[in-house]
Amino acid sequence: MRRAPPPKPIWRLAGPCSFDRGFRFYGEYEAEQSRYRIQLISQRWVKPGDELAESAFGLVQFCPIDQSSGKAFRIRLTAASGKWDTIESDDLAIPSTEWNWRTSRGRLKEAFSKAGYRDIAEEELKGSVKVMESSLAGPKGVILKGQIKSLVVRRADIVYGYKIIKDRPQREWIGSSELPPCSTY
Fold it and tell me: Quick check: pTM over 0.85?
């Protein structure tokens, strides 16, 4: 009696294109007390079988709201396996600088100061750092509605299966025009 061949492993059925897919996250959060809105797009590549991103890039925009003393500015965040995350901003003349659990709040507070924001509430600053860092983690790391108290979650959308060309620099994964200027929101 002849037996049927064993089934192929699922990973073989998926094909090599699954290794070139990532996740996009679109988020919008509001700091009501400090009078700013965070708009961000991040894209991540998560190795098959892993839960957190191996590499990621995020474009973050801070927009003043209702009588805020600050101006709009953008920050780029980059995460790569085996390296510290980095932050940089052309708007605020911040060169690529290390971003980690020890430096993140100070770096963001400095950015707010350069942009003219005054009296940033400490809890909203912590929440802002949290949503920025979490946006780089992968689909299980992003902050959704009901998961943060210091900021209002206006939007939190995850898009699966986004094509990523891993050989390209991460900053090319998201075009700056993909994040509309503050005035259009």
Answer: no
